[in-house]
Amino acid sequence: MKITRVTATNLSFEARAAAGGLGGEGAEATCFVAVETDEGITGYGQTGITQTEIVAACVNHVLSHVVVGQNPLDVENIGHLMYWAANPWGQTGYASHAAAAIDVALWDIKGKMFGQPVWRLLGGARNRLPIYITFGAERLDLKGAVDVAKEIVAKGFSRLKMRVGRPGLSRRTTRPAMDDIVSADIARIAAVREAIGPDVGFALDAGNRLDYPNAIRLAKEAEHYNIAFFEEPITQNDPALMAQMRRMCRVPLAAGQNEGLPFRFKQLLVAEAVDYAQPNIAICSGLTSALKVAGMAAAFNVPISNGGGHAPHNAHLQAGVINGTMVESHVGGFGAYEHLYEGLPIVKDGWLELSERPGFGLTPDLERVKAAAGKY
Ligand SMILES: [Mg+2]
Asked: Ligand 1 centre and the CA of 70: distance in Å?
């Protein structure tokens, strides 16, 4: 079997926020990739959380040249070719997203060829996973955060994660002081915990936006509210500072959703900086690389988890390997998938169940892909 064509399309569309039926409409952007073969099997992949137009250009104008003509089952060889095509001088960045979208499509082909779901090809550790719902846009005030949290729980979800530390360091010259941002967060954490009661899993995510002193302050306060984990508390996922923080605080730490190469996880694991490693298959150069991260984490007795969404894809990694744990859906995250695909995993009572459909089990609506193409 040979790959005959690789095409990336930058998509932009309005999607219903459909995490269990929550929320309204929202703008979504994603880079959608199709890998065609001479045996009629087409694999589909996608990536996001970055400038998808640039990523699509990287797929179409750089990576496709080394991928076309290869056997799609040779994911190690193709990963090697893509790495050296895009990173000949050891760069990191957008290219990892582009490689990820292609690699995900290759695993989709592999599953379709063998007539098996990806989660089983990886090892079939389980086919059901707990799902947690992420909420907390910058615009949400204290009452808004409480209302959304209560709404999520009322929909049957028993795990949620709130964004904190926004806008944090990203606009420190023009927005409130860091200590004011953290004070507002602490008030929201207390109010949400009181509203949802003691039994609901409650995690935090600073998205790399805090400096060390403010991250420590927030984590110390969070200790009073039974926080399940604190994701990406410190800017740039600094391994030494996170390790120091982990020794000082009782809140478990998680990181890695936007790391593009496995070596960054080696740094986090060797430094003992994380309780959960979070390789995202749509970002970390693909499932082939994320699997290596999962193996590294297993050797350190560290579980992996899903940050950065793309739950219907990432669920396969989390379900496939024994140190997988759970998947994330944003309020709105599933809406983007529902807009583009048929065959989504079933989400019920706070659990996500994967099907026996081959590959990732997702069938894109190519008319909708066409309709959303190229807009920004
Ligand atoms: Mg995150």
From this structure: 34
- Give the environment of ion ligand 1: residues with CB less than 5 A: 205, 231, 257, 307
Helix (H, G, I), strand (E, B) or coil at 202: strand
pLDDT at 18: 42
Local structure of 71: helix, strand or coil? coil
- Residue 21 pLDDT level (bands cut at 50, 70, 90): very low
Is the model's pLDDT at 369 over the cut of 60?
yes
User: Do the strands 230-231 and 201-205 form a parallel or antiparallel pair, or are they unpaired?
Assistant: parallel
pLDDT tens-digit readout, 275-322: 999 999 999 999 999 999 999 999 999 999 999 989 999 999 999 999
The alpha carbon of 65 and the centre of ligand 1 are apart by a number of angstroms equal to 32
Distance 176 CA to ligand 1 centre (A): 22
**What Rg, from alpha-carbon coordinates, does the chain have?**
20
CA distance 130 to 367: 32
**Residue 111 Cα to ligand 1 middle (Å):** 28
pLDDT at residue 264 greater than cutoff 70: yes
Output the CA 247–ligand 1 centroid distance in Å. Answer: 21
Instruction: Give me the domains of the chain, ranges plus CATH numbers.
Output: 3-116+363-372 (3.30.390.10), 119-353 (3.20.20.120)
Confidence (pTM): 0.95
